[in-house]
């Protein structure tokens, strides 16, 4: 047997084996790529479906809020010492009062309140009668809430403006505390229950915080149409918190005023310079 021919045969066998291995590796790589793509696509579809469900739930909350706004009136120009009992005494049709602190154009704190009625027709009927009412001899201002409000927002809320990790809860009584809400929302990470310190009464709403969206969603679903102490709760997704821009302590926005220390130093320098100019002029006159 020729040595050269046997060598050529072994080289052909080796090339065939290496070619077969390369083709096998390519097929494996393609199969793995297709598998990863399928997993990724499936994961994306699953996430999209979850997002669609959450958006649908948030959309329901927006519809519920719009319905509540129709049966709610907004009271402002209230006395500083006004209490929830005094507001409830304005009409026997009022079912709920939510107190708030509002800001006027100058940034001054003002007392205001949202008063809720059984339905929109009852709210409309009370609008005209409340316009004529006074609290502690002080006339109050009454407005609708939402689309019918004189000061309605040009940017209506959308599902993207809601926080998927925070719930807004209202409808509970003044005797409710954070522990009572914690029993209703055991998976909550923290609970904010705003209270007026002077009057020692609740503002009528609370914010329930969660560590992730799944826990928040489960609590939102399970707490629909629930009651506490005989009062039905309103549970909705809360609005996202807007981060406030830090104020510049040296210069206020829209003004060119310098701090008092700088202004004082400039005045002092100006006086000293003026005094030097006067002494120089006196010396020149004496030489003449």
Residues in helices, as a percent range:
40-55%
Structural class, from secondary structure content? alpha+beta
What's the tally of helices? 6
Q: Main sheet?
A: 4 strands, antiparallel
Give the uncertain stretches in residue-range form: none
* Secondary-structure element pattern, one letter each: HEHEEHEEEEHEEEEHEEEH
Q: Give the N-to-C terminal Cα separation.
A: 133 Å
Average pLDDT, all residues: 76
Count of strand segments: 14
Query: In which order are the strands of the major sheet placed?
Result: 2-3-1-6
CA-atom Rg in angstroms = 36 Å
What's the overall geometry?
extended
Describe the structure using short key phrases.
288 residues; alpha+beta; four-stranded antiparallel beta sheet; 45% helix; extended
